[in-house]
């Protein structure tokens, strides 16, 4: 059995990546294409099929036993469809059916990208050895996923753990999702930058208004930039504490571009967490930076495909 591989797809608004991954999480073959995100659905699917073509054309392909997909969301694993916010051409797009057809009926497991990164961090990264974990991606958006009782918990549609759309400010700004004061509306990279600019922060001569530029200014002591990061940290702490109180996680892992800000984010986050995570059973909660890097989506999609296989074999009364 150990010679078996799984195929993985990581689909986002910028790139579509594919890989063949072994049972130890090692990527043996990697390929990617730019996502034609503004094109129609079938044009986007042709880019996916081009990635799959490179995988199926490999001599290793004959060993692939399943395929995992981590996609920008929302996804609906119960129907095999995706409607990614940042890929307008796909609305209720039958991705599982189309991928299955392109791979001659290989079993396909679909999960949201936040859940995929969670699977990777639990299998190989910062949440390894933790049976109850929340993993978050804080970048252009804020996504996440849960591990409960030692197993990935994607929920019925594959979106469980989507912490970016917990409201942490009841009368806060309207979020594009339709709610108010969401974690994402306060803590995502573009919103950290927006708040700094609204507060009077001036970008340097290069005109860079990214969250990374705000982080550089904060490190140099700019008080408005610092305040924007502190507000983001507070929103993240409130969302993490709410999650820990609800399902008893013992670690929160934070990745994504904003997570790379290091102490600038983690120091005020840990301080704010002490204010919000006050009950005895959440006081031991730790916060750690993600370890998996850019291949996390692929490794996590592979992990989901592998765990689906192992539960199928167990259910059939074979192995374990």
TrEMBL record:
PROSITE patterns xrefs: ROK
Originating species: Streptomyces flaveus
Pfam families the record matches: ROK
Family: Belongs to the ROK (NagC/XylR) family.
Lineage top rank: taxon: Bacteria
Signal peptide: none
InterPro entries linked: ATPase_NBD (IPR043129), ROK (IPR000600), ROK_cs (IPR049874)
Protein's name in the database: Sugar kinase
Coiled-coil region(s): none
């Amino acid at each position: 059995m150990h010679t078996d591989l799984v195929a993985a797809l990581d689909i986002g608004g910028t790139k579509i990546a594919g890989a063949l991954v072994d049972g130890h999480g090692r990527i043996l073959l990697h390929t990617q294409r730019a996502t034609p995100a503004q094109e129609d659905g079938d044009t986007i699917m042709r880019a996916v099929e081009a990635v799959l073509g490179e995988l199926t054309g490999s001599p290793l392909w004959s060993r692939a036993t399943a395929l995992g997909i981590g996609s920008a969301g929302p996804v609906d694993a119960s129907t095999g469809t995706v409607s990614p916010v940042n890929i307008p051409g796909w609305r209720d797009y039958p991705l599982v059916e189309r991928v299955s057809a392109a791979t001659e009926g290989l079993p396909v497991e679909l999960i949201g990208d936040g859940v995929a990164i969670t699977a990777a961090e639990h299998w190989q990264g910062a949440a390894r050895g933790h049976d109850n974990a929340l993993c978050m991606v804080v970048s252009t958006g804020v996504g996440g996923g849960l591990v409960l009782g030692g197993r990935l918990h994607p929920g019925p549609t594959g979106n469980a753990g989507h912490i970016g759309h917990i409201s942490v400010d009841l009368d806060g700004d309207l979020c594009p999702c339709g709610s108010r004061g969401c974690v994402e509306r306060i803590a995502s990279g573009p919103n950290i930058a927006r708040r700094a600019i609204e507060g009077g922060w001036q970008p340097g001569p290069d005109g860079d208004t990214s969250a990374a530029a705000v982080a550089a200014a904060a490190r140099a002591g700019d008080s408005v930039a610092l305040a924007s990061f502190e507000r983001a940290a507070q929103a993240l702490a409130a969302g993490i504490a709410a999650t820990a109180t609800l399902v008893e996680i013992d670690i929160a892992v934070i990745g994504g571009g904003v997570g790379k800000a290091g102490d600038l984010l983690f120091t005020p986050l840990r301080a704010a967490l002490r204010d919000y995570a006050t009950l005895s059973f959440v006081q031991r909660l730790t916060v750690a930076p993600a370890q998996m890097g850019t291949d996390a989506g692929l490794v996590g999609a592979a992990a989901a495909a592998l765990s689906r296989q192992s539960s199928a074999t167990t259910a059939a009364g074979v192995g374990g």
